[in-house]
Amino acid sequence: MKQLVLENVSYCPKNSTEKILDQINGEFLTGKIYFILGKKQTGKTTLLSILAGLVRCTEGKILVDGEDLSLTNQDDFRAEKICCLFQNGNLVNDSALANLELEMLLSKQPNRTDELINSLQIAGLTDKKIKTNIKKLTKKERQMVYLAKILVSRAKLILLDDPSQLFSELDEEMIVRKIADFCRRNDKCLVIVSQSNNAIKFADELWGLNGGKLLFIKEQPR
Ligand SMILES: Nc1ncnc2c1ncn2[C@@H]1O[C@H](COP(=O)(O)OP(=O)(O)OP(=O)(O)O)[C@@H](O)[C@H]1O
């Protein structure tokens, strides 16, 4: 994936007349970092779910390298092109290492155990904790696993739902810097939705969302 384009994307849940997203237009390019800022309940997670191919927009379309996402194989798109972390970090009830191995399986990558262990160590986990069930890890250690999940991903599009929550026990700025560096180095596109502007200095572009509408897109000089 090199480019993802949103064309008049709107979302209105079934049995509702109120649009949660209203005519969003914009594009995301690989190698760039995007911050979508908005207060609570402004549609950030909904937009992320649509970008991740988990929810279909009810109007408009999303083009992935020129191809309409709704006409492509969504399972392949989710498995191979996207790494998405929502606020609960999406971990399963097993060890940190097993979680990363599962990620490899789901994204159809070969199991690179040494690399997975290395990423968990870089994220801050000890060798013992790497093999411990995530239920026995502290919240801080589980958040280290979230970071490792991103660092092992081969996906071109990384989606993060509010790092101030996702990495609440860690140094948010340092973590976003690490992820942003990783994305730039590997020519990935990073899209972060957030209520806080603690780490916006790492963004190439800021998007302002309010009441489901995109108020502005602002480029940041680097
Ligand atoms: N499928 C749905 N059916 C009904 N309402 C929904 C649905 N999906 C989202 N909403 C509503 O849309 C609004 C925006 O939700 P969303 O989670 O996208 O906002 P957000 O900006 O991510 O919020 P927060 O910052 O609190 O996580 C909320 O009021 C939510 O309850």
TrEMBL record:
Protein family according to the UniProt entry: Belongs to the ABC transporter superfamily.
Pfam family, one: ABC_tran
Name used for this protein in its record: ATP-binding cassette domain-containing protein
Keyword ATP-binding included in the entry's annotation: yes
UniProt entry tagged with the keyword Nucleotide-binding: yes
A single GO molecular function term of this UniProt record: ATP binding
The entry's keywords: ATP-binding, Nucleotide-binding
SMART domains the record matches: AAA
Residue ranges of every copy of the ABC transporter domain listed in the record: 4-217
Organism: Enterococcus alishanensis
Organism taxonomic ancestry: Bacteria, Bacillati, Bacillota, Bacilli, Lactobacillales
InterPro entries: AAA+_ATPase (IPR003593), ABC_transporter-like_ATP-bd (IPR003439), ABC_transpr_LolD-like (IPR015854)
